[in-house]
């Protein structure tokens, strides 16, 4: 490029590139041709190159410290002018718009119909809007081609129609049909035909028809269509006439007379009034007209008469729980009034007899539910009671197995009452006679007061048989339903505690009645579901009292014969009810958890003194088996007690506790107070193992050989069941291996075959489960994982000029952290730089706006001053003219 100013350099570059100057060669002038597209592109490229060379500051080159040949690096060369221009344009598109709209507040323009019309009310606006929406929706549905349903015409799918010859698009009117021409004729005849497929099939080209032939075919097809439509119309008329003639027979079916009604007042079937009365007189006239004059019946008249008939209404609806409770209470009160009148010999009034004997007439939708309580023998029992009783019967295979007798409840005059005086008073009733002295059986009343204490309940059921006890409780619940009065809720909550006390009362010796417990249990279930918190409080009070009794018995001495350390039949019944009433598989439960702790305390702390104690402990083990059926938790007290029971009853090779395998505690083994429990083979000759009657264990004697034999067989059976329950235990081998050794060292060879079979079965079950446990147990091994490599460190160079090695840290984590810090610093500097550019751009925008304001202000001021100056100049000129006029006048 030539030296000199930029202007001279630009001229020289343009001339050298051939863009400007004289390009003629040999002095000859050539005619300028029209530039082509390629010439334009070349010209633009040359101009760009000239511009780039003319301004060397448009390109910025970063000097490399070590230039390696053939290596391509990014960011070495840059174009700051273009980058700055691109940044400014980008900020104009984004930042400038945000800056201009920073003080803008968005708003919603209400364009709803009638919103800005003060003459319309709110109802009118809503009605008009609804009308507009329905109109818009109807238009959309009419032309909606995206509907899921297939488009049809006269019941035929449009997608299945190949042409429109036989679909009957023409009107039925004969006058309008003459002017219609078939679409196929227009397509193939008028336009010469454009169907290539048909032409391809024909080997010879189709002959062009004349106009006369075409018109003849059009007329023939039109007549054919007209005749076909006429035939279809006549067939439709024939079908309608046939339907009109057969309508009389259909009416005879619809309006068949009621067979139960006699005389002329019978009403048509299906159109009777729900109350049982005859329908309006118009229906009777209609029926007579339909049946009597079939030939003169008019269809339109029949339709108009049917429109005036009274429509049927639903007779019975589903009643709410409150309505059912009120009806049940009223029924019981009415039945009680009739019973009292009958007992006093008073005759019922005529109105009552009529009201009782009168029954409503059956209607078309009669469900036959208007029964009479006395005739059907209704006793006020709810529908849920039978289901609960059946469920209880299914869950209890044998009633005698679920109840056991142990120690008696504490005396009522114990001094250690603390905060459970009320509960002790309730449980002290266990010492009373269980069978109340009942006189002659009386008729069972229908109404009873709701008892608040157990004494009041005993007064109510004093003359009631045990069979009728569920009926009494059900009637009490029905008369005091929560929907009848607000205070009934608290009465029923107290009734739960009364029923729990009665369970303890009827299951206490000397005559426990477990059938009464089974009959009361469904009502306790229903009350517990209704009031779970209050029911749990009642059960917890009994558990606290039982725990106090256990502590008192242990303080007196666990080996004392009078110490009440084992639960009696009443307590065992309560524990059985808790297991059936509350969920026993929960990890923590407000009622079951204290129950499990109490049962474990009985088995772990109480000492064996008699066969009754063994029986009570085995019943607790049975309850534990029921409690842990789902959770399968390990209860060491239960397993330990079963093993000790076998050692107490069966003869073995062990003479003292030190010879026993394992670590099971056996404080009473071969002790003086347990020697009489050992079973003798001679005393069991000829005896068969039977299911033990646990309800009689509180009266059995320690020298009773059949009872000992049954208890020993029960212990072996329970041990096999616990083995099956705990087969998934991690420590199954450690727990049951000593037990297996004890079973193999029992001396049962001289006993009857039945007992030996049970013992052999138990040993085989435990041996098989131990074998499986040994097979599934594997020794612990170290975890197999990938070998950890030896860490290698980059040597640190102190004397080096390499910046790469100087910034490399041998510690990998510290090196990664340093990289993140450097990246953060880089991003922070970039963000600060961009923010400064944004601030500079906004400052320039503000400055430009201010300059524009100043310029417009100066222009306005110049215009004002110019107008003022022109006016002032004109004013001065006028003054000068006036002065001149005065001078002229003076000279004259």
Strand order of the largest sheet: 1-2
- Based on CA inertia axes, which overall geometry fits? extended
- Catalogue the unreliable spans: 162-178, 192-202, 259-296, 349-440
- The helical percent reads 40-55%
Q: Tell me the radius of gyration.
A: 55 Å
- N→C terminal distance: 83 Å
Q: Tally of extended strands?
A: 4
Strand content: under 5%
By helix and strand content, what is the structural category? mainly alpha
Largest sheet: number of strands, sense, barrel closure: 2 strands, antiparallel
Write a brief structural summary:
The protein has 892 residues and is an all-alpha fold. 55% of the residues lie in helices and 1% in strands.
Characterise this structure.
This is Nucleolar protein 14. This protein is an all-alpha fold. Among the domains are: 168-245, no CATH class; 255-307, no CATH class; 325-347 and 388-569, no CATH class; 608-727 and 734-777, no CATH class; 860-892. Helices cover 55% and strands 1% of the residues. It has 30 helices and four strands. It has helices at 6-16, 37-54, 80-93, 95-100, 122-142, 174-177, 183-190, 196-201, 211-254, 281-292, 299-307, 321-344, 350-357, 373-376, 383-395, 421-427, 454-460, 469-479, 488-506, 514-530, 532-556, 569-581, 592-605, 611-627, 636-649, 705-725, 732-744, 753-776, 803-806, 812-891, and strands spanning 60-61, 77-78, 152-153, 156-157. A hairpin with a 2-residue loop joins strand 3 (152-153) and strand 4 (156-157). The two termini are 83 Å apart.
């Amino acid at each position: 490029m030539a030296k000199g100013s930029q202007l001279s350099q630009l001229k020289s570059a343009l001339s050298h590139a051939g863009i400007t100057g004289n390009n003629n060669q040999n002095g000859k002038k050539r005619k300028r041709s029209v530039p082509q597209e390629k010439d334009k592109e070349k010209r633009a490229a040359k101009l760009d190159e000239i511009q780039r060379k003319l301004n060397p500051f448009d390109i910025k080159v970063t000097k490399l410290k070590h230039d390696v040949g053939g290596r391509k690096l990014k960011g070495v060369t840059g174009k700051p002018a273009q980058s700055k221009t691109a940044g400014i344009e980008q900020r104009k598109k984004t930042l400038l718009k945000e800056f201009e709209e920073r003080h803008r507040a968005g708003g919603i323009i209400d364009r709803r119909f009638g919103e800005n019309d003060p003459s319309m009310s709110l109802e009118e606006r809503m009605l008009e809007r609804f009308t507009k929406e329905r109109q818009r929706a109807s238009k959309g549905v009419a032309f909606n081609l995206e509907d899921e349903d297939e488009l049809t015409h006269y019941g035929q799918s449009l997608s299945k129609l190949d042409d429109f010859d036989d679909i009957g698009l023409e009107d039925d009117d004969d006058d309008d049909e003459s002017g219609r021409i078939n679409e196929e004729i227009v397509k193939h005849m008028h336009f010469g035909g454009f169907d290539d497929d048909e032409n391809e099939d024909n080997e010879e080209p189709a002959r062009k028809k004349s106009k006369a032939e075409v018109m003849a075919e059009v007329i023939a097809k039109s007549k054919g269509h007209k005749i076909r439509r006429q035939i279809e119309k006549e067939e439709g008329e024939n079908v309608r006439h046939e339907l009109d003639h057969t309508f009389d027979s259909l009416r005879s079916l619809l309006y068949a007379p009621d067979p139960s009604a006699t005389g002329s007042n019978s009403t048509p079937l299906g159109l009777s009034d729900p109350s049982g009365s005859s329908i309006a007189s118009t229906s009777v006239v209609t029926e007579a007209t339909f049946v009597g004059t079939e030939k003169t019946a008019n269809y339109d008249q029949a339709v108009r008469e049917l429109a005036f008939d009274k429509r049927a209404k639903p007779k019975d609806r589903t009643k709410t729980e409150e309505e059912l409770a009120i009806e049940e209470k009223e029924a019981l009160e009415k039945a009680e009034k009739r019973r009292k009148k009958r007992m006093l010999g008073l005759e019922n009034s005529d109105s009552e007899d009529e009201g009782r004997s009168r029954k409503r007439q059956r209607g078309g939708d009669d469900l036959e539910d208007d029964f009479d309580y006395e005739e059907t023998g209704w006793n006020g029992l709810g529908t849920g009671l039978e289901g609960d009783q059946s469920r209880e019967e299914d869950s209890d295979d044998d009633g005698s197995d679920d109840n056991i007798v142990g120690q008696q409840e504490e005396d009522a005059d114990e001094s250690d009452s603390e905060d459970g005086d009320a509960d002790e008073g309730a449980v002290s009733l266990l010492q009373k006679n269980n069978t109340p002295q009942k006189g002659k059986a009386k008729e069972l009343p229908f109404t009873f007061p709701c008892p608040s204490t157990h004494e009041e309940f005993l007064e109510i059921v004093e003359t009631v048989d045990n069979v009728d006890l569920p009926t009494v409780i059900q009637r009490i619940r029905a008369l005091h339903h929560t929907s009848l009065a607000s205070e009934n809720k608290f009465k029923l909550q107290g009734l739960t505690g009364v029923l729990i006390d009665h369970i303890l009362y009827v299951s206490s010796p000397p005559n426990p009645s477990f059938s009464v417990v089974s009959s009361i249990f469904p009502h306790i279930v229903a009350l517990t579901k209704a009031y779970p918190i209050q029911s749990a409080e009642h059960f917890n009070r009994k558990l606290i009292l039982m725990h106090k009794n256990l502590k008192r018995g242990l303080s007196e001495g666990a080996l004392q014969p009078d110490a009440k350390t084992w639960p009696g039949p009443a307590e065992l019944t309560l524990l059985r009810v808790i297991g059936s009433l509350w969920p026993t598989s929960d990890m923590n439960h407000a009622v079951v958890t204290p129950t499990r702790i109490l049962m474990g305390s009985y088995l772990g702390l109480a000492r064996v003194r008699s066969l009754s104690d063994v029986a009570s402990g085995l019943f607790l083990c049975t309850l534990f088996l029921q409690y842990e059926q789902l959770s399968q938790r390990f209860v060491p007290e239960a397993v330990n007690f079963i093993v000790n029971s076998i050692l107490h009853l069966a003869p073995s090779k062990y003479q003292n506790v030190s010879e026993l395998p394992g670590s099971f505690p056996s404080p009473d083994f071969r002790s003086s107070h347990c020697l009489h429990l050992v079973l003798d083979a001679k005393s069991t000759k000829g005896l068969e193992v039977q299911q033990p009657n646990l309800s009689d264990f509180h009266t059995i004697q320690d020298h009773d050989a059949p009872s000992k034999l049954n208890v020993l067989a029960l212990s072996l059976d329970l041990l096999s069941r616990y083995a099956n329950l705990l087969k998934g235990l991690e420590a199954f081998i450690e727990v049951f291996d000593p037990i297996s050794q004890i079973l193999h060292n029992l001396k049962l060879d001289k006993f009857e075959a039945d007992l030996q079979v049970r013992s052999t079965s138990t040993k085989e079950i435990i041996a098989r489960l131990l074998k499986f446990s040994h097979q599934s147990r594997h020794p612990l091994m170290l975890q197999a994982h990938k070998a950890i490599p030896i860490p290698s460190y980059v040597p640190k160079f102190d004397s080096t000029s390499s910046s790469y090695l100087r910034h490399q840290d041998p510690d990998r984590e510290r090196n990664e952290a340093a990289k993140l810090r450097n990246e953060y610093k880089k991003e922070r500097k970039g963000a600060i730089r961009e923010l400064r550019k944004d601030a500079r751009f906004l400052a320039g925008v503000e400055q430009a706006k201010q300059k524009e304001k100043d310029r417009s202000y100066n222009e306005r001021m110049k215009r004002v001053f110019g107008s003022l100056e022109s006016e002032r100049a004109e004013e001065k000129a006028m003054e000068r003219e006036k002065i001149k006029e005065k001078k002229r006048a003076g000279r004259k």
